[in-house]
Amino acid sequence: MRTRFICIIPLFFFLLSVEAQVGFEQYFYFNSTQLMTFVPIVSFESPDKWYAEARYNYEELETVSFYVGKAFTGRISILSDIREPHGSKDKLSYSVTPLLGGVAGKYKGVSGGMNAVVEYRHIFFSTQSQYTIAYYESGDFFFAWSELGYQPWSWLFVGVTTQHTYLYQSANLMVEPGGVIGFTIGQWNFPLYVFSPASDHHYFVIGASLSIGGLTGSNR
Predict the structure, then answer these.
(1) Rounded to whole angstroms, how far apart are CA atoms 61 and 87?
(2) What secondary structure letter does DSSP report for 49?
(3) How far apart are CA 19 and CA 90, in angstroms?
(4) Vertex 203: Cα angle to 98 and 27 (nearest 5)
(5) DSSP three-state, residue 199
(6) pLDDT (tens digit, 0 to 9) for every residue of the chain, 220 residues total?
(7) d(CA 163, CA 147)
């Protein structure tokens, strides 16, 4: 283990030296009756927008997944004040990343998905979706996690969120609405989610994420 760690350190600093962006995310799921489940996510984006992401416990417990894709980013000028003689323009920024990947462990399969983020002034929208085909017949599913939020100050953001899960074998659609409040300290984000708050099956998700390196900062 120590040897592996020593080998990872030079690789980590090399990725930053080439102006890549590296992201670390950690989420803990819990409710009043179950212990916490941790979901770590590590991502990498090269200067020319090639993207890779690894997850654990995301699709299923004791399961690892790996995705690759390419990000398409841009900024769009929006006329925000027509009362000005020449108008004043703000920038709407977006990032769309189609993904292909594989899943191994307790759940095995192949998966395709998309990460997308749109930001305008203090408003942001993000969504992460995937369609996953299992190696066994009954495990295909579609999943999407979407957020619409507002960041009134640099250190605070709030919003609404929802998760959609569709199990194809049973034709079962689960919709879990919720809310989020989060705090930003430097390059760190600390969100707290609650899903299905009006239901007896409500649960919480605590997160911590860090984005370092790259030509630009994190999306939020």
Answers:
(1) 53
(2) -
(3) 27
(4) 45
(5) coil
(6) 444 434 444 444 444 445 789 999 999 999 877 778 999 999 999 999 999 999 999 999 999 999 999 999 999 988 655 555 555 568 899 999 999 999 999 999 999 999 999 999 999 999 999 999 999 867 899 999 999 999 999 999 999 999 999 999 889 999 999 999 999 999 999 999 999 999 988 999 999 999 997 543 333 3
(7) 9
